[in-house]
Amino acid sequence: MTTTTNKPTDISLDELWDSAPISERIFHLDSLSHLPEAARRYLHYAIAPGAKLASAVRLWMHGEIKLGQKWHHFTGEEVICWNRGMIWRATTWMQCLPIWGADSVVDGVSDVQWKILGLFPVMQANGADVTRSGAGRMQGESVWLPSVLCNPDIVWTEMDTEHVRANFTALGEQAELVLGMDRFGGLERVKFLRWGNPEGGKHHYVDFGGVVEADGTFGDYTIPTQLRLGWFFDSERFESEGEFFRCTLA
User: I need a labelling partner for 236 at 20 to 30 A (CA). Which of 15, 18, 201, 243 fits?
Assistant: First the structure.
């Protein structure tokens, strides 16, 4: 079980990025020989042979986020450091005023907040439920750091020729990540159970995920670059009330 505290983290993106261990592990195709065919196809597509298996990734993005019933344009930056957690910082606008937001879970410390002009809070949350939800977010965002899905503790199960399930632990939380892909191994869908309360009320596990609309290659890695994400994925409720995040990597 993940330990938590109510004290927000004040670690910066740069500090988290600089703390990532340097990996000397190399990706070899023969290391996939024991995996189901769909898992081999995905990892072969996502990682170039001979690549160093990264332990962290830094992303810049823009898109739309749904706050209340309205969509708002945002720009953001994120660092995922697999052994510690993630930090996402973003800026959006309401009535011509900038609102700065942050979502982080690092070393068991969680924090979500939005502030007008970076000064006046409009939303803030932390604690055990937020930490568990943040761990779930990082489970899904492993597709932006596919090297971690080469770890030996990942248990792969082929569901059919187009879907594979990865079971693993991220930040002390069990993950069951379902990846849908095309015949080449490119991702089309991501789905997992995430702790949250999208209806309000008590937190519980809810289907979360989204659609991959484009991907791109950055050095030795090919990752999703355009996604639509939200709650109630794979149901009629996704587009009507669950979808709240649309992003494109810069």
Answer: 201
- According to DSSP, the residues that pair with 163 across neighbouring strands are 160, 180
CA distance 114 to 92: 10
Token look-up 């930040």 returns: 171
Residue 138, classified by CB atoms within 10 Å of its CB into exposed (0-12), middle (13-18) or buried (19+), is: buried
Burial of 153 (0-12, 13-18, 19+ CB in 10 A): exposed
Position 1 scores a pLDDT of 32
What DSSP line would sit under 182-225, residue for residue? Answer: -TTS-EEEEEEEEEE-TTSSS-EEEEEEEEEEEEEEETTEEEEE
The helix (H) or strand (E) run that includes residue 137 is helix 128-140
Q: For residue 204, give both structure tokens.
A: 């519980």
Compute the average pLDDT of residues 115-132. Answer: 80
3-state secondary structure of 101: strand
Buried b (16+ CB within 10 A) or exposed e, 53-82: bbbbbebebebbbebeeeeeebebebbbbb
Distance (Å, whole) CA 175 – CA 148 = 13
pLDDT digits (tens, 9 = 90+) for 65-115: 998 889 999 999 999 999 999 999 999 987 788 888 899 999 998 888 888
Contact (Cβ atoms closer than 8 angstroms) between residue 166 and residue 156? yes
Where is pLDDT greater, at 31 or 118?
A: 31
